[in-house]
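Researcher: Let's run the pair from yesterday's discussion. Sequence first, then C-alpha cells, for each.
Model: Starting with the first of the pair.
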Amino acid sequence: MRANYTLKRLFVTDDLAAGSSFELTPEQSHYLANVLRMAEGGELLVFNGGDGEWLARVAAKGKKAVRLAIVEQTRPQNPLPDLVYCFAPLKVGRLDYLVQKAVEMGAGVLQPVITQHTQLAKIGTDRLKANVMEAAEQCGILAVPEVREAQKFSTLIAGWEKDRRLIFCDESATTNNPLTALQGISEKKLGLLVGPEGGFSEEERRQLRALPFVTAIPLGPRILRADTAAVAALAVIQATVGDW
C-alpha cells in the first residue's frame, strides 16, 4: 500500500492503537499549532517505526500542547530494509543530504565510519537521527533506519558479518561498469561502504580487496563527490541486487 501524500506525516514515540490519545512534544505542538495552524479536528498521519501508520485527529489544542486522538490504521508496519549503509562523515551540509538520500533509497542501518582520509572525525548522532526522521516523514517511510555510533575503519572490518556482502566504491577501478561485479552477488544481506572526499587510502583499499566478503565496484568514468557517489551507488545496487 502506497503512502498518502495529501496529509502531513509526523513521527511520534508513543504507542499507536485505535482509540488511544497522547500529547505531542512542545516542538511538535508548536509545529502543528503555529506553523501548520492546524485546528481541532484537523487530520494528519502518524507513525512510530513499529506500529504502522495511523490517521490521527487534533483532539485538543492548548497554549502549550496539542493532543492527538488515534482513529484508524492506514498502513501496516513493514520490515526494515536489510541494507547496511556505511559512510565516511562529510561536512555538515553535505552530510545532511547524504543521510536523507540514504533513507529515501532504502538503507536500514546508517553506520558512520572513520577512515584515514575522513575530515570530520567527530559526528553527532542526534543530528543524523533528526535527518532520518525528516526524510521518513517526507517520503512515506514506516520502518525508520537505525543510526549507529561512528566506528573506525579497522573496527568495522574486523566485526563485519561474514555472511553479509560488503560492496565498496573503488575509485581506482580499471573499468567503468559496476553491473558485472554486482550481478555476481548471490547474498541477500548487503552492505555498502562509501569513502570520504579524499577517497580510501591505498592501505584501506588493499585490506578491502583481500577480504572474501567484499566486492569492489566502479561508478563510471566521471569523478563524483562523496555524497553524489553514495546516491549513485545505492541506486545501482537497489536496481541490480536490491529491492527494486
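Model: Moving on to the second of the pair.
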Amino acid sequence: MSGRSGEERGPAGRVYAPDFLTELFRNPLDPGYSDAAAAARRRPPGRAPGWRGASARVVSLVVTVALGFLFAVAYRQTAAAEPERGKTRAGLVQQIRERAGETDRLSDRADQLREEVSRQRAAALGGSQAARLRDLEAGTGLGRVHGDGVVVRLADPVQDKDAVTGVGAGPAQVLYTDLQRVANDLWGAGAEAVAINGQRLTATSTIRSAGEAILVDFRPVTGPYEVSAIGPDSMARRFRDSRAALLMREVAETTGVSFGVREAEDLTLPAAPEPQLRYAKPSVSPSPSVSGAGRSAGPGPSGPGVSSSPSGGGR
C-alpha cells in the first residue's frame, strides 16, 4: 500500500483508487463533523461560539421581557375595569327587575279593568246577550275559561356544564316547533281553549323563537313548558295517538327531552290580551248585534268548541 490515504498500489507500480462503497465503510463520518469537532477542541475555554449565538440570546431575552410587560399591563387594565363592569351589570339587572315588576303591575291592573268592563257590559246588555257574548269570548280566547282537560309537559334535558366556560353541552333543547306541533294537534283533538305557560292562544297567536328564547305572542316563555287545553273527554286519547305525541315520544327517547301527558280537572285558562282594532265596518243589519261585532273584529273562531291553529297561520 502507498503512503497516500485511500490508494492501493498493485503490480508494476499501478495505482488503483478505492470505489465509493469501500471509502464509505472505511470512513463513515462526514468530513464536516470532523472539522466542527476539531474547531471546538481548538477553541479556548469560556469563549462564546460567535456573535450570532450571542445576538440570538439577547433577542430572546428582549422578546421575553416585552411579552411579560404586555401581559402585566393587560392584567392591570382588566383588573381595573372589572369593578366598573360589575357595576354596569348590576345596574342592568336592577333595571330588568324593575321593568318586570312594572309590567306585572300593569298586567294586574289591566285584568282588573277588563273585569270591570265585563261587569258593566253585562249589566248594560242584559241576560241573553251577555251570555252569548261570554260564549263568544270563551271561544275566541278573550275570556277566562274553566273545565277539565289535558296538560302536556315538555322540559329540556339535564345538561352537563363545561368545566371551563360553564356553558351547557348536553343534548338538544325543546324547540318552538315542538310547541307548535303540540298546540296544533291539541286543537285537532278537539281542544276548545289552549294556553302555554299561562299565555292563552287565539286564532292569531304566534309561536316563534328569538335566539334561544321561545316567544308566544311576542312574550317569552321558559321551560318547563306546560301546554294546557280544555276540551272533551276524548281529547286526551286522541292527542296521545296524534303525530305530535308520537314524534315527541321518539325525541324524548333519543335526546332526553322530557315529555308527558296527563289529564287534569278544573283547569283555569286566563284570557288573551285584547286585540288591537285597526279597522271596523258597521253591521249590515239595522240593529247592531254581538255576532256582527265579532265578525268585524277579524278572522277567528265563531263560537266555543271550534278548533283553530294558533301557530300555523303565522308561519
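Researcher: Give me one sentence on the second I can quote.
Model: The first helix runs from residue 20 to 26.
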